[in-house]
Design goal:
Helix content is 42%, strand content 13%. By secondary structure, it is of the alpha/beta class. Helix 7 packs antiparallel against helix 8 and helix 8 packs across helix 10. The radius of gyration is 21 Å and the shape is globular.
C-alpha cells in the first residue's frame, strides 16, 4: 500500500461525487448512487453491526482513502479554529502523505525515550504498517484507546516475526506512556474500543474478537495456577464493564455483557449478562453486539460536513436512522 499523492487527494472529491447522490438547482444527478459511508467510516461512528473491512482496505489500495481525507479535513478545520494548534496539526497530520505515515510519526514521538529514539521508532512503525494489510484495516476500524492499540499492533507484528525483545521493549513503553499493558503475543481483532484506555491488562495467550469494548481497569489475566494457554478468550461483540477481571483460560461468549467490578472465573454463555464476585448469569441480552450500544463522540453533523465537502451542496445520503446507534 503506497502513500497517496497530492494529485490523488485533488481527484478524490471528483471520484466520490460520482458515487454520491447530489442535488443541484433542484435536479438530482443521473447515474448517481449512494456513497457507502457505512462501509468506510468506523463501525461505532455509524452504528452498523459489522464494517466491511476488505472494502475499507480496497479504497487505500485503489489510491483513495476517504478516512485519511476526513482526518486531514478535520485537522484543517481545527487549525483554523485554534491557530495555536496549527503547528502541532501540521507536524502530526497535514505534513504526511498517508494515515500510516502520520500515525507512525505520532506514535514514535509519544513512545520515545533517551535510549529509544523517535527517529528509530518512526522507521520501525512505518515499515511494519506499510507492509501489513491487517494493520492497515485495523487502524481504520479501531475506535478508542487508539494510540495504545496501534502501538500494540506493531509490537504484535514484531513478535510474530521473531523480534521478541524489541516487541517487549515496546510493550514496556506502551505501559509507561499510555497506562495499557498488552502482551505483544496476545491476539486482538479489529473495531476495538478501550474506553478511557487506562489500567487495561491483556495477557500473553488472551484472544479478543472483533468489535469488543473494554472499559477502564479490565484485566484479562491468569489464575496463577495454569501454564501455557492460560488467559481468557473473548468472542465478538462482547462488552466488558469497568474494572472487570476475567481470569484463566475461559471463554466469554459472543455478544455477552459483564457488569462493572465483576470477577469472572467460569465460561460466560453467548448473549448473557453476568455480574458479581464471582460472576453469575443474571439475564440475557437481545443485542447481537452489546459493544455497539455505547454512545460515542462521532456526530451526524460532522459526517454531513464530510459528505458535502466530497460531493457538493447536498448529498442526501445521511439520515437519522443511518447515524443513530442502537439502544
Amino acid at each position: 500500500m503506497a502513500c497517496l499523492s497530492d494529485e490523488s487527494w485533488d481527484s478524490l472529491p471528483k471520484m466520490l461525487s460520482k458515487s454520491v447522490s447530489i442535488k443541484e438547482d433542484g435536479e438530482e444527478e443521473t447515474n448517481a448512487c449512494e456513497f457507502p459511508f457505512e462501509k468506510v467510516f468506523p463501525v461505532y461512528a455509524i452504528g452498523i453491526p459489522k464494517p466491511d473491512s476488505d472494502f475499507v482496505l480496497s479504497f487505500s489500495n485503489s489510491g483513495a482513502d476517504p478516512i485519511w481525507d476526513t482526518v486531514r479535513e478535520e485537522a484543517k478545520l481545527e487549525a483554523e479554529k485554534e491557530p495555536i494548534l496549527s503547528s502541532f496539526l501540521y507536524a502530526s497530520i497535514l505534513s504526511h502523505d498517508c494515515l500510516e505515515q502520520a500515525l507512525g510519526f505520532v506514535l514514535a514521538n509519544r513512545l520515545q525515550n533517551p535510549t529509544l529514539l523517535a527517529t528509530q521508532l518512526v522507521d520501525i512503525f512505518y515499515d511494519v504498517m506499510m507492509s501489513d494489510k491487517a494493520i492497515q484495516r485495523s487502524i481504520r476500524l479501531d475506535v478508542q484507546g487508539y494510540h495504545s492499540l496501534q502501538s500494540y499492533r506493531v509490537a504484535h507484528a514484531l513478535w510474530t516475526k521473531g523480534r521478541k525483545v524489541l516487541a517487549l521493549a515496546l510493550q514496556s513503553r506502551i505501559s509507561e506512556v499510555f497506562g495499557v499493558d498488552i502482551h505483544p503475543a496476545a491476539r486482538i481483532g479489529e473495531g476495538i474500543l478501550l474506553d478511557h484506555a487506562t489500567g487495561v491488562v491483556i495477557g500473553e495467550t488472551a484472544v479478543v474478537g472483533n468489535r469488543v469494548s473494554l472499559m477502564h481497569g479490565v484485566t484479562l489475566g491468569g489464575t496463577g495456577k495454569e501454564v501455557g494457554d492460560r488467559h481468557p478468550k473473548v468472542d465478538e461483540g462482547a462488552l466488558l464493564g469497568a474494572c472487570v477481571a476475567i481470569l484463566g483460560n475461559i471463554r466469554v461468549g459472543e455478544g455477552a455483557m459483564i457488569a462493572a467490578g465483576s470477577l469472572v472465573l467460569k465460561d460466560v454463555p453467548p448473549h448473557s449478562m453476568v455480574a458479581g464476585i464471582p460472576a453469575k448469569v443474571i439475564g440475557y441480552v437481545n443485542e447481537q453486539d452489546p459493544s455497539l450500544t455505547m454512545k460515542h463522540d462521532a456526530t451526524k453533523e460532522f459526517f454531513e460536513h464530510v459528505a458535502v465537502s466530497y460531493g457538493g451542496k447536498s448529498t442526501g445520503i445521511l439520515d437519522p436512522k443511518n447515524t443513530e446507534r442502537r439502544s
